[in-house]
Structures are given as C-alpha cells and as structure tokens.
From TrEMBL:
Single annotated GO MF: hydrolase activity
Protein name: DNA mismatch repair protein MutH
Keyword Transcription regulation belongs to the record: no
Alphabetized UniProt keyword annotations: Endonuclease, Hydrolase, Nuclease
Origin species: Macrococcus lamae
Ranges of residues in domain DNA mismatch repair MutH/Type II restriction enzyme Sau3AI: 53-154
UniProt xrefs under Pfam families: MutH
InterPro entries reported in the protein's UniProt record: DNA_rep_MutH/RE_typeII_Sau3AI, DNA_rep_MutH/T2_RE_sf, Restrct_endonuc-II-like
Length: 461
C-alpha cells in the first residue's frame, strides 16, 4: 500500500501509516529505479518519502510533512558482535557560527526540529541488495527527561565555544548525545566565517551520536543489556572493578567466575580474555561491549596480550596488531571522511585497553589498563589512509596465484600509512565482499600496529 500525503492527513495518519512499514522489505514499497545510488542512505530516505508517502523530493527548507511540520528521517541499523547498533550518527541541521546564541536548547530550532520527527530504522546488511533491506522499527522521536537534560548541556557547551569566537576549536569529542559533527567536503574545503573571530571554522552540523542512536533504538525494541544499577557512576564502577582484577593471572580471574571454575588451568588462549573480563564486569552474555552502559558512554574494551620474549619453546606465540571492524568499502566510496564509519569509530569511542603480559612461568597476568582516545595525529593518518583507499577503489581487485594465495591490487601496504593497515582477517562469516566496482575481494579489517599500541602503554622493546 502506497499513499499520497496532503493537507487532509492528520498527524495520527502520518504515524499510523508509517507503522505499517515495520517488517516490510524496501522492494515491497519502492521502485527499483528510485535507488540510483544503491548503498546511499539518503537515496533510501528519498525513495521512501517519494514512493511510499507520495512526497516529491525537493531542496526547500520546510519539513518533509510540511502541512504538519514533521521531519522524516531514515536511519540504518546493522548487526555486529555488539548486537543491533546504529550504523552512523543522525545528522540534524547545520550550525550557524554567525549568530550569537540567545536561545535555550528547548527553544532552539534543532530541538524543535527533532521534537516533531518520524524516524524509520532499517537493517543495513553487507552483500545484500538494498531492495531486500528490511524496515525494523518506526518511531515518533522523543527525548526523555534524562536525555533532554544531557543534550541540553551538550548544546550549551557547543555554543559557549562558538560565542567565545572559538568555533574553529570545536571537536566531536567530549559530548554525550548532541555533538558538532563535521559536515562538508573536508580538508578545509568548507571553512566558514564566525561572528567573534577572524579565524574560519570547519563547517559543522548538530548530530545525535551513533552511540545514543543505538541506545534509543534498543529502548524501542526492548533489547537493553544492563550490568549495573543505572543510578551508579558507571566509569567509577569500571575503574574500581579493573583495579580489583589487576595483578591476577588469567587462571585466577577464571576462578572468580562459576562458568570457568572447572576449565583446564594454564590454558592461556587469549581469545578467552575478552569474555572473562566481560563476565567479571557483569555482562552475562560475555560481551561487555554490547551492554547499554558501554554503548551509551562510548566505551569499547579491547585486550592486548604481550608474550615473554625470554621464554623459548614450541608454544611460543607472537604479539598481534590490534584489529577493528570489517571494512565497508561502500561506506568509504560514498562518504567523505567526516561522514564515514571510520571517523565515527575513532571520534565517538573511548577505548579501554586491557594489557595482559606473560611472566617467566608462562602465566598471563592482567598488568594494566588505559582509557584511550586516539589523537589528532592518528586521525590525520586515518584520513590519509581513507583518502588513498577511496582513490584506489575504482581499480581495486584481487588476484589468486597457483598456490591459492590472494594478492590485493591497488590497496595499501603495511608500511604506507603506519600505524594503520588494511588486511584480511578471517572470521566465521562469508569470506568475500563486493567492492563498489563490482569486483569481489576477501573480507578486510582495519589494523593498528602492535608497536603503536606498545607505545600507548610505555612498552619499548
């Protein structure tokens, strides 16, 4: 069933008819030729707006449902090791640096815009025709009192910086819900003047952070995974817990958990470590990164294992680089760096790096942990790798030699963008992914060099 929106509709009609979309694939409501850019979220949003609601796409500043002043937003959800999470932040409206702010958050245009917003969540899947994407949930967007107060503080923080003539110092770090996201061509192509300084500032937009959008979606579908009482100070809880675990061997940590008490002592399989720490911190599913508290606070725990170089023997294992998520090459191809998953992954996340070191007897000991945010120098390297990869994608391919080994053509080498590298990481999922040029390639991950991680901990070999 497709509709034609007009002035006879009521607000209830809008949300009732939107609810009918839940559980439906895009192919059931839109025309195939409506998705000119098949991996583009904006294309999907425009297609739903035009084909389902009968609202022609236009560049006017008015709301999509203009008779009722209601905005339409379409937002992708993906499934990974954390469960269902928002694929990206939700961009709201551009920030005007030329106006001194005299409005509270409640009276601001950005709040009024989201106060009347229809949001449609759909499942984005790799290697799946977008016409097969399924709509998961439809919601009349609302901030609860707690979220409103937090977003209001974020809003005040943004405008305090702007009013001081320091818009050029804005960054997405340090905000909990509402952040000043980079928006534009990047690399100083879109510098804007500001009212209280002669220094031009990078163009930015109000956005709800991807971590918040994940939390919001989970509330809708009742998939909350809590590890502590919401009234407790979460970061304090994590610090106190990790301090308690420090100095213990892996076997001792396992003995603190009922499900691990009868495992074989001395089994130093490093793949156990994230699950053990997760369970010790209260995540019954064994994945602390999937809990609401970690997602809402923008935390992600990663473990670092360093083996004793003195020990000799056949059991010897080598230190590993740190891997991150599988790479979505369509995201790189269709987005500027500031709108990419890579940018969000490293600007919105505080990584809790937990270090395990092997002692002379071969035991792994939880030695240290660090709350780490990657700095501007790292982000510049990440941008360079992103731009190089984006440039190479039209010609990217993979060859296979007579031994069955794959070689990437026009992707990057290990030394070209230190400490970063793109390379294969085999998982239990499908081995190949499609590139934007139609070629297939073995699934790739982003890695950070082990020596760089060692420097974070002050480990110099």
């Amino acid at each position: 069933m497709n509709y034609q929106y007009d002035e006879t509709w009521t607000e209830e009609d809008i949300f009732t008819r939107a609810k009918e979309l839940e559980g439906i694939s895009l192919k059931d409501i839109i025309h195939a030729d409506s998705l000119n850019n098949k991996k583009n979220k904006g294309g999907i949003g425009n297609a739903i707006q035009a084909d389902y609601f009968g609202i022609a796409a236009n560049s006017r500043q008015e709301a999509d449902f203009h008779h009722h002043n209601i905005e339409l937003k379409v937002h992708p959800i993906k499934k990974n090791t954390k469960g269902f999470v928002a694929k990206e932040r939700l961009v709201l409206s551009m920030i005007d640096f030329m106006k001194r702010n005299q409005l509270s958050f409640r009276d601001s245009m950005v709040y009024k815009k989201t106060e009347s917003m229809l949001i449609i969540f759909y499942l984005h899947e790799e290697n799946v025709d977008p016409m097969e994407f399924k709509i998961l949930k439809v919601s009349h967007f609302r901030l609860n009192d707690k979220d409103f107060n937090i977003a209001s503080m974020d809003y005040t923080k943004i405008h305090t910086i702007i009013d001081k003539g320091e818009a050029h110092l804005l960054t997405e770090k340090g905000y909990d819900i509402l952040a000043p996201a980079r928006k534009g061509g990047g690399k100083d192509k879109d510098l804007k003047v500001q009212h209280a300084s002669h220094i031009k500032a990078k163009s930015r937009a109000y956005s709800y952070k991807s971590n918040f959008m994940t939390t919001y979606y989970r509330r809708l579908v009742d998939k909350n995974i809590h590890i502590i009482d919401p009234k407790e100070n979460f970061k304090k809880f994590v610090i106190q817990s990790l301090d308690e675990f420090k100095g213990h061997t892996l076997d001792e940590l396992k003995s603190m958990i009922d499900t691990y008490k009868h495992t074989i002592p001395g089994n130093n399989d490093k793949s156990q470590i994230p699950k053990i720490l997760s369970k010790l911190l209260g995540a019954k599913n064994g994945n602390i990164n999937s809990t609401d508290e970690f997602i809402a606070n923008g935390f992600e725990m990663k473990t670092v294992v360093r083996y004793n170089k003195v020990i000799k023997g056949s059991h010897k294992k080598t230190d590993q680089d740190m891997s991150f998520r599988n790479i979505d090459f369509f995201d790189i191809d269709h987005n500027e760096f500031e709108d990419s998953e890579w940018y969000t992954m490293f600007t919105e996340t505080i990584y809790i790096l937990c270090l395990f070191k092997e002692d002379d007897s071969g035991e792994l000991i939880f030695t240290d942990y660090i709350f780490h945010s990657f700095d501007d120098k790292f982000m510049a390297k990440l941008r360079d790798l992103f731009e190089r990869t984006k440039k190479n994608l039209p010609h990217a391919k993979q060859t296979k030699d007579y031994n069955g080994n794959y070689t990437d053509v026009t992707l990057t080498s290990k030394s070209a963008h230190y400490p970063l590298q793109i390379r294969t990481k085999y998982t239990g999922q499908s081995k190949f992914v499609e590139l934007p040029n139609g070629n297939e390639i073995t699934k790739k991950c982003l890695f950070v060099n082990k020596n760089y991680i060692d420097e974070i901990f002050g480990l110099y070999v």
